[in-house]
Design brief:
homodimer; 467 residues; 21% strand; 38% helix; alpha+beta; five-stranded mixed β-sheet
Chain lengths: 467, 467
């Protein structure tokens, strides 16, 4: 990582940025293959929009113009007055999406399939893997009035395919269905006003941290009865990648209702559908509640096996109302990858390594300053055919020019022959692979490097680098 | 443009974003072809770093945590105390680059060739083409202690090639050399302390706006003598794309010195070198001073012919000291494209139009919900070969599914045959080009669209769209 002077605001060195760029390019490619359109929203939202989501508002960075801050200092005036016109940096990409959808509803076609890869900011205390500025990559499918359940399967499939394409090895996705939890554990007749159920979800979410005993303790403290606690614990233990086993274990709980059956069917479909694109990587886990978010259907969490302690690298769920305006309701389903978190893990653990730290394939040496033009002609001819090339910045001895290319991680050095204006018999250009030492005559109009050398790429751990 | 609720913070609709993405992808491709490495820096810098550059500090947005702003409101406390730890959003990418270079000097190889494409923020009053949040695309070449003049030619060449690749037609770059201006118009012996020269440059910069009379008036008011004013006006009138003419006209001014000769040689080399990659597009204009910036060598400004009133779309120059730390000095040369400004012009004038508003090539129709799986298999087979495909969100009548694809701008609809499980004789899949109506049998494992349809692209004005 680049030297950090401000905690929580990570920066990458050029070689690390190649890894991040690989992640970003790969996600974009997969999202677009599935017909998601890319949008960006402004970095700021109005304070009321940022506060509407409740819990997270505490982490917002507000903006203030320097001149106005200075005027306040000098005049001893009152601090900036918070109002509906106060602007803050967005802390996620869901709040902006909701606002964008309502604002541009007439210019969008629904269901809207959009991806969005942008920085977000949270004024929280930085910790390992928690940043104040970080990039998120979100996909959402947003319907108008209605959104078919099959999109809840599709969203998981797209993300599993995207994560697989990164080359960091198989991930583990755990899925659940909030309607099923409600059907099993909700207070009959309470619906979405069910305060106890909301509390139950928060405790359930902590199952992996505090264990069955902890859950029992907290629920007892809440005044939940022993039978109900037993049911919660039985639910929490249901975790399987086998849809048939899932069906049997849920039905064995003895809570029989149409709501249980229909939501169980959904969860089984999700498990089957997601497993189809990522066999062995998907589990239904009834303890995955994502209690802090307002999900109303499928919920998803994704871990990287071996790094479970790092937390979820991709999560999300279904909202019956991502946003509403008057009588218009926009249901949505989406997942979000914490790109900066994931890249910080990839870099720290060396899960992916760049093949080189620069796009340059060829450094064209310069025989003497007077012949720099010839070297430039060579570089132009290479670029013309898509081969990244630069000309040596000095006309020092070849040994020094080679060492410079080596330090930059450039795999090939091109040596101009004396060219048509040279003295004596014209020599031919040569190109040297400075990794192997192999050197041969070459023509800038036809020479092509092996495909693997054409661009810097990333290789999984253990495959080493070319340098 | 997407409906704007906050002035100065533009957002694009999906089809417009495809144009912006084309611009961003093209710039990146050309920068990387020339061996520039991509970096990103954090969005924030410390207040002292932001204020160091002087003039622009008035436009900074400071950050304040919401909770601290609220506490101040409630307790009637003093406003946020500005300190060296106060953070603000960067207003350009040069200040962050300078800080990044010093911070990571030991991990970088010089000359550093870096490009950086990021949002920046300025708290200024928004106007036509002036935004509060906008994307810049910068290239800089930063040396350690020394930076050869040829990089000043190279930087212009890279940007001219990048702008040409956008497909918006030929641009016009005007170049000058601050050393030449100093040699011609500076007060002897004053060097960089020359206050009058600095004022002269500011007035010279306004030549195109206020004309020769205006320049004469302002310089007279400054107390500049008549002979000197005459010289300034003669200098301001020198504008040519012919290096030989440039040489003759400058020498005809009668200011003869080694400094004039050497800086004139540089400007002639720049003119020749830049014209080589963009014939007829480059002029030396001695009135281009860029007086507000601390350039010390070549300076560049780029206009789009026909839209001169829109202002410069790409500008920059050479710094002898981009940044220094102790006795270490890092000279640099760079140019910056105002991407958001440029894209807003492209969109407003329709200079580029997307061939379609979505990445999707094929919408696979769904015969009935029970056969959605088959449609998904088709889409998967297409994606497997890099063809963006999505499955119809409903199993309504084909006419409605086709109209939906049409509204989305998707060029092809795929109709599943009854498949192996169908009743009677198995029908074959067919694919229909809904622009031409052409429909033919197809196999998802082999069918390929014309290359032009594989991805949305942009076409120059007048070439129309496929829809």
């Amino acid at each position: 990582m680049s030297k950090q002077s401000i905690s929580g605001f990570p920066e990458w060195l050029p070689a690390e940025r190649i890894v991040e760029q690989h992640v970003l390019d790969t996600l974009r490619r997969v999202f677009e293959l599935h017909g998601f359109v890319g949008i960006e929203t402004r970095a700021v939202e109005s304070l009321p929009a940022l506060e509407a989501k409740g819990e997270t508002s505490k982490e917002v960075y507000l903006l203030q113009r320097l001149q106005s801050a200075k005027a306040q200092q000098e005049e001893g005036a009152a601090p900036q007055k918070l109002s509906s016109r106060t602007l803050g940096l967005h802390f996620d990409l869901t709040v902006p999406l909701a606002r964008y959808v309502v604002q541009n509803a007439n210019d969008l076609v629904f269901p809207l399939r959009r991806y969005q890869i942008q920085k977000v900011w949270r004024g929280e205390r930085p910790q390992e893997g928690r940043f104040r500025e970080f990039t998120q990559a979100d996909i959402d499918i947003v319907g108008f009035e209605h959104l078919g359940f099959h999109h809840e399967v599709e969203a998981a499939q797209v993300m599993l395919e995207a994560l697989d394409a990164l080359g960091i090895g198989p991930v583990r996705m755990e899925v659940n269905n909030r309607r099923l939890l409600q059907a099993l554990l909700g207070t009959p007749g309470e619906g979405t006003n069910d305060q106890e159920f909301a509390e139950l979800l928060r405790v359930l979410d902590k199952y992996d941290k505090i264990g069955a005993d902890g859950v029992e303790e907290e629920l007892t403290a809440m005044g939940v009865g022993a039978d109900r606690i037993r049911l919660v614990l039985e639910v929490a233990r249901i975790s399987t990648s086998n849809p048939e086993e899932l069906r049997q274990r849920v039905l064995a709980l003895g809570v029989d209702s149409d709501a249980v059956k229909s939501s169980l069917n959904e969860l089984c479909s999700l498990l089957e559908g997601a497993s189809r694109v990522a066999p062995g990587q998907v589990k239904a886990s009834l303890r995955i509640a994502r209690g802090l978010d307002y999900y109303t259907g499928s919920v998803y969490e994704t871990l990287l096996p071996g790094y479970e302690g790092f937390g979820s690298i991709c999560s999300g769920g279904r909202y019956d109302s991502l946003v509403s305006e008057g009588r218009r309701v926009y249901p949505g389903v989406g997942l979000s990858i914490g790109v900066t978190r994931l890249v910080s893990l990839i870099l720290r653990e060396g899960l992916l390594t760049p093949t080189r730290p620069t796009p340059t394939v060829v450094m064209v040496a310069v025989n003497e300053e007077a012949s720099r033009n010839y070297s430039e002609t060579v570089a132009e001819a290479l670029r013309h055919r898509g081969i990244s090339a630069e000309v040596s910045h000095t006309a020092t001895k070849f040994g020094k020019q080679i060492r410079n290319a080596e330090r930059r991680g450039i795999p090939y050095v091109w040596f101009p022959g004396t060219g048509p204006d040279g003295e004596g018999a014209p020599e031919l250009d040569t190109v040297k692979d400075i990794r192997s030492g192999d050197q041969r005559t070459a023509d800038a109009k036809t020479w092509t490097p092996p495909t693997a050398d054409l661009r810097p790429s990333v290789v999984p751990r253990g495959q080493g680098t070319t340098h």
